[in-house]
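Subject: two folds for Thursday's group meeting

Dear M.,

Sorry for the delay on this. The cluster queue was jammed most of the week, so I only got both jobs back this morning. I'm pasting them in the order they finished. Each block is the input sequence followed by the predicted structure tokens. Could you check whether the formatting survives your parser before we put anything on slides? The first protein is the one we discussed after the seminar.
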Amino acid sequence: MSKQLSKILTPKMGLCFILLLIFSGTTAALGRVDVALAELVITAVLFVYYLVTVYRQSREAARFLDTLTRSMDEASRESTLNCPFPMVMFRPDSGEVLWSNDHFLKLLGGKDRIFDTQLSELLPGFDTRWLQEGKPFCPDEVRMQGRRYQVYGTLSHSDGEDDTYTIATTYWLDVTSLKNTEDLYRATRPVVGILQLDNYEELYKNQEDYIRASMLRDISQRLSTWAKKSNGFLTQMDRDKYLFFCEEQYLEDMKEEKFALLDAIREVRDPSGMSATLSMGLGVDGETPADLFKMAHDAVEMAQSRGGDQAVIKNNMNFEFYGGRSVETDRHNKVRSRFLADTLANLIAESSCVVAMGHRNPDMDAVGACVGIAAICRWKHIPCYILKPSVPNPADILYKRMADVEEYRNTFLDSQAILEKMGPRTLLVVADTSRPEQVIDRSVLNAATRVAVIDHHRKAATYIEGPALSCLEPYASSACEMVSEIISYLMRVTDLLPAEAEALLSGMMLDTKNFTMRTGVGTFEAAAMLRRAGGDTARVRSQLFQTRFNDAVAKYGLIQAARMYGRGVAIATSEQNVGRVIAAQAADELLTIDGVGSSFVLYTDGEQVYISGRSKDNTNCQLILEKMGGGGNANVAGAQVSGRTVAEVTAELTHCLDRYFQDETASPEG
């Protein structure tokens, strides 16, 4: 340090003295020896003065640095010894405690000394890896002697006898009061809930007055009992709707008991045996009461769009789902269907053109529903274009069949052509999905200013927001059934082309497995209307549902490879890309085997693993596959997982199955 300081403080005078010597030599060479000697004497005197001055400055600088260093060391020692916070020094590699102040000893309960003690003995469970990771404080609070501490720390290096070793210094800040206040704030934050009876009309219509009063009294009593458990406030907003307030501290108990109110309400039955069901929407973590109420409203809408009989919690980030194990019941409402049909017709009439789009890897239900939308547009004399993916897909045969129809020769376009035709008055109709990440082309969705959604799947946590029309009916068999019903309110049967009727029939036949699953009154009414329009189920089956020999071999190979997992669950896996259609057919075929109540078929396609789930019993495929990022309905669901092998996804599926059945055991009514 002194050598470096000397270099800094020493003036660069060497060149000056050399020049003086050169001048003296030049003077002597010119014959002026006496002048040259005088110059040499003066140069020598200056050089001596220069050396003395430099020496004095160096000593003064060294004395100043020594004083400053001693002052800093003394200040450092004083600040360490008199630190008002608990402090402890230790070696992070061995955990050996080197030193602590009196405040830290008091924190430990008044110990006399802790030198040569292991930190793990004093603070069991205290993890110091955050110091090695370069973090300035411990990410978790530490509890000791009934107090709560936030720990800060630094690492420094010290020279030992043999080598340099690391010392960790930690400072313990008592944040008990702050954390307790924070916990109290979080525990007492308000929760707003909206509770709505799903099947009020079905329960009370055609019933005697005393029966209605008895059921209503029974439901009200169960609601009041449940609300009192959380010290909540419950009031009736409408004949089938209630407003609920409580504090957030009671929400965890509701989650742990899986919202037992759902089971309690389901025990109320009318004389015919129909159970009452309830949808609950809870808003939490809102900034204002208005925010909480809107969250609760969105949550109860989400619950009902997923079939009801469940609780949904919405916060600022996402949704949480509880219940929803029961299969959707047909709550068909012709008044609402007619209203939706009129609204869609008005939206189409106000549009410059209409674009229809299904989900990625579209099937006949998605394409058939888009064809139905095109039929309405043709009736309204509004141009309609259907987005066709550029890659092979399960509905290729239907695309080709419809493209041969004169009215549809210029209807099927790719994404680029669709985007060129879209304008500010374009209406985009999304069919057979309500999730933005599942549409054929996200850019088309983003370019649309007005969107209508028609879907028969349960609403997922991600959904298309702000649609001009949202028609979500989880009890419907298919999107084609929903579009067919809309058509029945708007058009005459003779206005529908036979090819259009058969396209809609193909979607219904696909999703109902030839009218054997998920059928309701509306399904057969829609099928009858399509039959009158010229649709022929035999022709649809022979032209659109023929299976190639290799596909049949692949399907039965999957069935042969299936294994029973338990609880009537059959799982089949393939390391080959068998295709979505073959996997779905194999899953359906497995359900025909005695003892199989639900089936899951997994196959790989490049970087993704696809899952097709089917169920014919009370097992809810949608709840199981939703945990893996999928969705669908109680009896038909699917998922796709990226970046993992079939074996890894199968292991995750079995884990989800175990959790599902554990929850089912805990809540048998669910």
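Second protein, same layout:
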Amino acid sequence: MLLLNRTLIRMAKGLWGWILAIVGLKMITLMGTALFAGAISGFLGNLYSPMFTAAEAGRAILSALWAAALMFVSELLTGEAEYRCNAKANHSLRTQIFSKTLELDVGNIEKIGPVSAITSSVDGVEQMQVYYSKYLPGLIYCVCAPIYLFFQMRQASLTVASALCLISLVLLPLNNVFRVRIERLKTEYWSAMEDLTSYYLESVQGLTTFKLYQQDQARSKTLSQKAMAFHRKIMDVMKVNFSSFLLTDGLIYGAVVLAGGIVCWDLLQGSISFSDALMVLLLSYGFFSSVRQLMNATHTALAGVSAADKVEALLNMDTSRPYEPSRPMEPNPFAGIRMEHVRYAYPGRVPALKDISLTIPKGKVTALVGLSGCGKSTIAGLLMRFFDPAEGRILLEGQDYLSLTPEELRQRVIMVPQQVSLFSGTIADNLRLASPKATDEELMESLEEVRLADWVRAQPKGLYTQVGDAGGKLSGGQRQKIGIARALLRQGEYIIFDESTSSVDVDSEREIWACIQRLALKRTLIIISHRLSSIRDADQIYVLSGGEVAQQGRHQQLMEQPGLYRQLVKEQNQLEGGGLCG
């Protein structure tokens, strides 16, 4: 069936040379087949002829051997060309997908989901590359081969050549009657695959939790159900393919039988020589070998077309960001960051921020507190320009955020997230993500600030100690400290700490807060923390509720007035048995 996909064809840039090379080599193989059939049929047809000499027999045998060698070499080269095409397609497609993924900011990553990105770049590419190395060359070859064989066979039997050429060319559009069914199945097939992949990945990541609560058997049962659902989609596709194969093979074998009958009749009538009749019979099935090759590649090509829809959605995602460098500076700029009447809503959700106005003075410590879902992390995301406000504006020392690119802004404003991401490699590798040209001395200085330098020096390989997969060889506190040290290497003027101690032990938390207090003496800090005792010395505290500023002031001021802050402090004080209220 015809699986012409505009996305895949558009992405074939740089691959057409290999695609046409594969078609050309297949045509050379077909020419070798025709030469071999002509030599063998001539040899057998004239074998008992008294005019047939030993020299002619030798020439026929040499011609057959030469044709066989030609087919052998061209088949080898076809395999090599398909491999090269696969490799180039793999590299080209993954480069396009990875490049686009790297263009996405946090907001867009959340839209597509990490599993969709993984399946598109891994499983999708594996299927799509076969479309270029097998399906497209096979489709072009399907058109060229019957025409070539028609001209090779027409002198022997114009009737058979015409009939076989017509049937072979009709097979492809005839198979397209299955197109509507396939269009529906390909979407269901890929959705089932993504659902299974997502559930499996989540199950592996949360295996400890399932074991802890004895839910692993229930999870396994659901996983089996999803695997079976995916299996059913595969079988649905196979059923359509089987129906297509049944129709195709029925016509192919019917056409070959028809050709044999016509040749036998012509042979009995004496209108065709025995050698020509043999050649027609030898080449008859060759008319359809190209169609069969294409049908064999159809299932994999179908998966590639299904993947292409997901890849197209990814590649077509608008990653442009508002950028207006001509916006003027304020005449009397505020020394710090100012948010004015900012509103933001995540797609498909109620507004996370309704009408937020706040100031973050330079050289001071500003804290954001409130219940979960009140908008604290959304403000952090806006300050880092992971996304842009729907309404209102943000200014950095009098300069509108939209007059800066995200890259320019992130040289001045940096963030230590709740979960610091470390990558396989050394401590130095992870630190140099922030400053690729930093010297070992500069790395150690940043580690000194977070009180981790002595531990690093105690390691046999020092800065070049392997941290393991995702920093698995380090404790939670060590990972967070390396994350802070990495942020310090950036030399940003403003540092956002977004719940940076929520996933570490008590001792590590104490050390990290001591580090933050030292940084407060020379940097502008924006602290988001659920631990209210840690922000009581902040220069100003914003209490958020329902996407709005409910209260503002210093700790003592807020404790003296009724409201959410005092309520939260008292509740936490009761839980911890401490004396925060004092």
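Two things I noticed about the second structure. Residues 6-315 form a domain with the ABC transporter transmembrane region fold fold (CATH 1.20.1560.10). The first strand starts at residue 336 and ends at 345.

Cheers,
T.
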